[in-house]
Amino acid sequence: MDTILKLTNVSKTYKSGDRELTVLDNLNFSVERASIISIVGPSGSGKTTLLGLCAGLDRASAGTVELQHKTLNILNEDQLAIIRNKYVGFIFQNFQLIPTLTALENVMVPLELRGEKKIKDRAMALLEKVGLTNRIHHYPLQLSGGEQQRVSIARAFSSNPIILFADEPTGNLDADTSSIIVQLLFDLNSEAGTTLVLVTHDRELSAKTQRILELKGGRIISDSQGLHE
Amino acid sequence: MNHHTNSFNKSGMRDRGYNFPWLLQMAWRDSRHSRPRLFLFISSVILGIAALVAIYSLGNNLHNEIEQQAAELLGADLEISGNQPSTPEIREMLDSLGGQRSSQQSFASMILFTKTGGTRLTEIRALKGAFPYYGTLETEPASAGQSFRNKQEALVDETLMLQYGAHIGDSVKIGSVSFAIAGKLILAPGQTGLSASVAPVVYIPLQYMPQTDLAQKGSRISYRYFIRFNPSTNVEELVSRIKPQLEANNLRYETIQSRKEDTGRSFTDLTRFLSLVGFIALLLGCTGVASAVHVYIKEKVNSIAILRCLGVKSSQAFLIFLLQIAGAGCMGAIAGAALGVVIQQMLPIVLKDLLPVKISTPVSWTAAGQGIILGIVVSILFALLPLLSIRKVSPLSAIRISYETSGRQKDLLRWIIYILIALFVFGFTLIQLHNWQRALSFSLYIAVSLLALTALAHTLMWMVHKYFPSSWSYLWRQGLANLYRPNNQTAILIISIGLGTALICTLIFVQSILLNRINMSTGAHQPNIVLFDIQDKQEAAIMNLVRDFNMPVKETVPIVNMRLEEVNGINAEEAKKDTSKGLSYWLFSREYRVTYRDSLTPSEKLTAGKWQGEASGNGLPLISLEKNFARRSGVHLGDTLTFNVQGALMQTIAGSLRDVNWSGIQTNFLVVFPKGVLEDAPKFKVLLTRVPSQEISAKFQQAMVKQYPNVSIIDLGLVLHVLNDIMSKISFVIRFMAGFSIVTGLVVLISSVLISKYQRLQESVLLRTLGGSRKQIFIITTLEYFFLGALAAFTGILLALIAGYGLAYFVFDTEFTPPLLYILLLFVLVCLLTVVTGLVNSNGILNRSPLEVLRTTG
After folding, report:
1. pLDDT at B15
2. Which of A32, A120, B491, B594 keeps 20 to 30 A from B821, CA to CA?
């Protein structure tokens, strides 16, 4: 199997006054291409920090993070931006759509950034897949939470990422909407063959993934197989 | 490690560049919801741009008008003037010039409105000929400008007639002759409202001059000759031919070209001054822009973080918002230029008393273009500082709301922008002033003033916050606490409104200092009225008249007119040729009014040399010179000065230097002779007395004008009146310009209120949810703006007080008593203006229902 993400002896510390706070402590693991894994753990266990490091949003204090065989630690900010645009997709707990752009424009942004042509059809097709054909010209504020997350999913897949990071994707949704969104996410993921890294503390959701990494106090306390086939 | 870096490049991950069309598209898309707000930010600079465009347009139009109306400014092709009656030599020279010629004798004289008994010192112009040859004497009725010339009639300054209740057909007594008023004089060539305030003009026909008995020995009469040539005459060439003769006869000349240049220069100075005042308003607006963009970008942090997550480079994110601001700046600059064109229509009205030409107001496209470019440049330059923070927005902010970049790091670009702003201020000032030292001083002055205002604003805010009584009711405390709301632009508001207040307040103080100084110099026993030009034979009778009015003769001072012929054997011609001698040419061209006495007066102090009270008979008399006059003219102690005392040459030695206090109603002289030298020379006297009241002053002046019409009278009332008139005309212009600063402050206030509207809305909803009534929220909001206005007004007044004391002590050398009533009025006015502006713009907040807001934000 091809390794797409590899962390070696990764630690992350923050300075708080004179004290050093270790948020992640010597983590080692790797993720295979097209796999679906979840990172679980209680609040403050370091899940979001880990996601930030894996996606090239932040830098490790020690150790190396390799994404698609590229060591992120040594890249500058602009190079990291290119990595994110080319390889990475994001889904956020609070949807994080750009409020001043319509649904369609939000989906088009990653493609426009690449300078790709004829992107409107692709964006429209993705919005159709997530069931928002009739809402494409609406602004985020005019959409419900579930609809915003659908746009977010369409945006995440628009650039054909090789890895998708989802940070509590159902955290702000009711139970019914959550299950629809999760289904949509898994369906699109299997169709595109993307690696999916889910950060959640929803045990039910993590159980649907192939592999569960459990964090506590900045350390991996278990690395087990989930129920998902 | 290198392996990875190399593989990064090899795998095609090269920089995609900036993708400029996409950046433009993003800037456009993102601005869709923010356009009114962006325009509001930029609106702070609109007034500054408008002021500058209006002033530049005025400057351009003025330049064109002076160019076109130059002939009307002078009224002739050539004007020759001097202080001596024409001699055969002068007449011969004038005759040789050919063309048409008019003559005018002008002098200061009292006039008496016989119907009302009013008297006033005026400038009499006795005219013969068809002058003006270009333009007209603008009169009402229009025909009076011509008809008065052949009759015993006068044209009297319009304002003077209004002041003294005189009407056309009334008679006015000038010297020994009564003239019927033929018409009101509205405008004479080259005259301005300001010059008419200082010396209102009365025209009479020259043929009646002898009958007036005003041309006596020692009278100060200016003789002018106005000449119109055939259009083919080269006036400049002609003037250069007769120049030696003019200089030999102490005659001055002016051509259309030289008048054009002089007037142009004066008004370039005026427009430069006004544009610097406008520039201050613009700078205040710029700080408002910087502050508003700072708030705007803070709100955009999340969108920027999302874009960064999606792969946008920090520099691209920076450019998206820079393009937005540049676009808004462009709109603001265009709006400012358009408003400037409107204001430009008003400027001729504001400046009407200072302008020598009638000015039309076509749109000056050059000025509008300059304004637009300036607007875009300043909007970008000042928005760059807050925009820089975009580069530091981490994509992590998208997943962690509480994420903040670590501390304030040193940012070289920030310093570069500070330097660019400083260079811009200096460069702009340099373009206006054409002198780098002055430009540097002005730039430093602005920097220091703004820093002082900022420090003052922050100190006041801190003190009020710290020492505000905690026992006061909740409404007061909440109103005050609102000032310290995060992202509130309190400091910048205090600075901009405060600066406008400071400008207006300083102006009031200067006016008060000047008037106080004159009032103080005429204490209970000091003279308050001066009678000039008393002939020897009139002296005893006038002294008797003074005593008949129970007034004291405080002092009689003899005055002898003379000219300077040589200094150490060097005459005017030599001094002009050889500037290494250090003697100023004007030293020889002016007429001196000299006195003689044996002691110093209380307003004089000997600073160098030896005072000679009485000429000893051994050696040349030692005269005393005013020290600044000696310094400016290049005359030193021990120099030999040869005077021409109305035909007789008299050698003297510069024996002493005096420091003279020129303020007050008293006689002071540049040159004082000892006794025993000038007693037999033709002279006139000045008499100083004190009138107990304005009524007696009026009666006394009437009696004087009736019996001794050649004697000119200046009383304190007239001085104060003239000073007030001049000050009010000048201060109107300055107030108009200072208004731009205040209104800019209010625009920043409106922008600030609207920016923080959402926050205010939430605060208001919260308070109403907790049971606060509409009335209570209204009171809190009112108090917030009252505190803001009060702090701004207080800052401005405090700064003006410092300036006032400084000016009184260092410049005017007098005491300073702040006019408390004016200060109080100004304070109340600024507070009121701030409260009204704030409340009008907060109206929507007070009227929204809590549920409506909670639904929207939920």
Report:
1. 59
2. B491
pLDDT tier, A19 (very low <50, low <70, confident <90, very high otherwise): confident
The model's confidence at residue B737, banded by pLDDT at 50, 70 and 90, is confident
- Closest residue by Cα to residue A89 from A15, A150, A33, A156: A156
Q: How many beta-carbon contacts under 8 Å exist across A and B?
A: 108
Q: Is the pLDDT assigned to residue B204 strictly greater than 90?
A: yes
Q: Check if A17 contacts B (Cβ < 8 Å).
A: no
Task: Give me the pLDDT at residue B520, please.
Answer: 62
The number of angstroms, rounded, from the C-alpha of A35 to the middle of its chain's C-alpha atoms is 13
Report the alpha-carbon distance of residue B688 to residue B282 in Å, rounded: 51
Distance CA B705, CA B718 (A): 16
Q: Write phi, then psi, for B119 (nearest 5 degrees).
A: -125, 150
User: How many beta carbons lie within 10 A of that of residue B796, not counting itself?
Assistant: 31
Say whether A70 and B4 touch across the interface (CB within 8 A).
Answer: yes
Please give the residue range of the domain that contains residue A9. Answer: 3-225
Minimum distance, in Å, between the CA of residue B306 and any CA atom of chain A:
7
Say if CB B375 and CB B333 are below 8 A apart.
yes
**A145, closest residue in chain B (CA to CA):** B858
Residue B269's nearest CA partner among B438, B505, B514, B128 is B438
Q: List CB contacts (< 8 A) between A99 and chain B.
A: 33, 303
Mean pLDDT value across residues B515-540: 75
Question: Which residue in B26, B35, B310, B404 has the most chain A C-beta atoms within 10 A of its own C-beta, making it the best mutation to test that interface?
Answer: B310
More confident residue, A141 or B857: A141
* CATH code: domain of residue A52: 3.40.50.300
Lowest-pLDDT choice from B505-509, B516-520, B658-662, B777-781? B516-520
Q: What ipTM did this prediction achieve?
A: 0.82
Extents of the domains making up chain B: 26-72+265-402+410-434, 78-232, 452-522+716-858, 553-689
Contact (CB<8Å) A110/B311: yes
Q: How many domains does chain A have?
A: 1
Q: Which of chain A's residues have a Cβ under 8 Å away from the Cβ of B310?
A: 84-85, 90, 109-110, 113, 155
CB nearest B29 (choices: A82, A88, A100)? A100
Residue type, A27: L
**From B15, B19, B310, residue closest to A110, measured CB to CB:** B310
Report the C-alpha gap between B279 and B442 in whole angstroms.
11
